[in-house]
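My current task is to audit a protein record that another person submitted. My question to you is simply how this chain folds and whether the tokens agree. This is what I was given:
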Amino acid sequence: MAGEPVNVNEFQELAREALPKMYYDFYAGGAEDQYTLKDNVEAFKRITIRPRVLVDVSRIDMSTTVLGYNISAPIMIAPTGLHKLAHPEGEAATARAAAASKTIMILSTTSSCTVEEVASSCNAVRFFQLYVYKRRDITAALVHRAEKNGYKALVLTVDVPRLGRREADIKNKMIAPRLKNLEGLLSIEVDSTSGSNLEAYAKETMDASLCWKDVEWLRSITNMPILIKGILTREDAIKAAEIGVAGIVVSNHGARQLDYSPATITVLEEVVHAVGGKIPVLFDGGVRRGTDVFKALAFGAQAVLIGRPVVFGLAAKGEHGVKRVIQMLKDELELAMALSGCPSVKDITRSHVRTERERLLSML
């Protein structure tokens, strides 16, 4: 592809050219038929914007807060694993790009730089994404390290009692490098002659018994606020609000877990209604345009998290690529706000979007 990319999707093409097939497939792929993977993106296309005109939009303010922390725009960095497969500087480069963009990065447990390396890479507000392992002492050790190194919140991923079936990784016999954060804590030699060693590793280590009462246990070992990531239903949203977590991330794990789970944008409003403003709702899945961010905010998200676009930016152009991806989304969001008559993020309301169902009903 000639020239500089002009939108986030073009970074995916650059990443495809830059990366070995196995790694590109690992980042880009979803579970099984990849129905949800496609639908995460496609579902945004079924929502239209209802722009309001003759509003003074000479100044646009995209800034917002998440858990009381100011960010320059409602666009954060989702936790994604193994950034060194994309670029030698890995998560340290991503962290610097997030800091330069004045936004929050959520570091993955499965990062290829340690909690400590990322903390010392630059000054910024950062959250830590947590998996709960069968050995609780390992989980507790990770939590304490994150807290000690200044991470401001825990993002507990709850949709991986087992690893989703990612067929590209199985075909490619994807071998994941050792997880830096678990060095000296967990050494599991897994035999994965039949497929991906990620799958074998997850089976050996992940705690499939994790349930609601364990959130209490987690709360008892840390002062960090806890967000729950991986909620897709009203029922679970109500439960999360009841047990008093600090927030929810509506997420289907980038369509890497249960195929034929709903596209996240189609259930965001259900979750927002269920929590009734008691706790903030963040959102991820399929965000590729500033208009996608706008739509998620209109349905009640406090901010969106971007995953794959960050990794593709990193693979294509390192730290600069990640900055460009965030800046492109910010520029597009700013334009969408101006053209929709929304000078600030609080001006973006439910009346600014129309679902396909609403459109059809209006034609009856």
